C-alpha cells in the first residue's frame, strides 16, 4: 500500500520522548483489503534492520517485544482492522512505547513497551488474516527519539556559577529595596519639615496680628470746654 506512516503533525505534549513517540493513526488505508476477522499490526524495527525484517506467516510467528535488543525488531498494537476504517471513530494518534508494564518479564507479548534507545526506528502497518499477511504499508522515515541527559555529564562549575548569579542578584535586589526605602524616608522627612515650618510661621503671624489689629491708635484728645485756658483773657475772647 502507498501509505507511509509518520509522527503525528498535531501539536502534542511529549510527541517524541526518550522512550516513546506519537504516530498518526491511519484511516481508510485498509478498506477494500480487510475482512471482519483480520487484524492490523505495527512492526517496529531499528532503521538499519528493515532490510532483514520478514513478515510473520501467522500470529504465532510474530516477533515479541522482549527480543528487540537481539532481533532488532518486534510487532505490537494488534488491533481489529475495522478500527482503521473510514467510518470508525478513533483517537488520532497511536503512542508507540507507552506500556511501562512490559518491563515485567512475566508479561505476555504482544507488548507495546518503552523503546530502549534513541534509535532511530522505522515502522510499518501490516494487515494479517487467518492465512497470514494480506497487505502492508511502506516503512516510515527514520524516527529519532530524544536523548536523556546523564547526571554525570552536567558541569558542576556551571551549576555553581548559576547559583552564584542567583545569590548576587538576590543581594542586589535587597540593597536596592533598602536604598529605595531610605530615599523615600528622607524625602518624607524633608516634606514633613517644610509643612511643619509653614504651620509655625502661620501661628506666629496669627499671634502677632492678635496683639495689634484690634487696638486703635492713641490720638491726642482736646481738653473739655472752659478748662485749662491760660491766660484767662484768651479764654474769654474765645
UniProtKB/TrEMBL annotation:
The keyword Membrane applies. GO terms for cellular component: membrane. The keyword Transmembrane applies. The chain crosses the membrane at residues 165-187. It comes from the Eukaryota. Keywords: Membrane, Transmembrane, Transmembrane helix. This is UPK3B protein.
Amino acid at each position: 500500500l502507498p501509505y507511509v506512516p509518520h509522527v503525528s503533525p498535531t501539536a502534542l505534549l511529549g510527541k517524541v520522548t526518550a522512550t516513546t513517540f506519537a504516530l498518526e493513526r491511519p484511516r481508510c488505508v485498509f478498506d477494500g483489503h480487510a475482512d471482519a476477522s483480520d487484524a492490523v499490526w505495527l512492526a517496529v524495527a531499528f532503521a538499519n534492520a528493515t532490510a532483514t525484517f520478514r513478515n510473520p506467516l501467522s500470529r504465532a510467528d510474530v516477533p515479541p517485544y522482549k527480543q528487540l535488543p537481539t532481533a532488532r525488531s518486534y510487532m505490537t498494537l494488534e488491533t481489529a482492522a475495522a478500527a482503521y476504517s473510514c467510518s470508525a471513530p478513533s483517537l488520532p494518534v497511536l503512542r508507540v512505547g507507552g506500556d511501562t508494564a512490559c518491563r515485567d518479564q512475566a508479561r505476555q507479548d504482544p507488548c507495546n513497551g518503552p523503546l530502549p534507545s534513541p534509535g532511530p526506528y522505522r515502522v510499518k502497518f501490516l494487515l494479517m488474516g487467518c492465512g497470514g499477511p494480506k497487505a502492508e504499508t511502506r516503512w516510515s522515515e527514520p524516527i529519532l527519539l530524544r536523548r536523556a541527559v546523564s547526571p554525570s555529564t552536567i558541569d558542576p562549575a556551571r551549576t555553581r556559577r548559576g547559583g552564584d548569579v542567583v545569590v548576587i542578584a538576590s543581594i542586589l535586589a535587597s540593597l536596592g529595596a533598602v536604598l529605595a526605602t531610605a530615599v523615600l524616608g528622607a524625602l518624607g522627612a524633608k516634606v514633613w519639615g517644610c509643612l511643619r515650618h509653614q504651620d509655625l510661621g502661620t501661628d506666629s503671624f496669627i499671634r502677632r496680628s492678635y496683639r495689634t489689629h484690634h487696638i486703635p491708635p492713641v490720638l491726642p484728645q482736646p481738653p473739655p470746654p472752659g478748662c485749662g485756658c491760660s491766660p484767662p483773657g484768651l479764654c474769654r475772647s474765645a
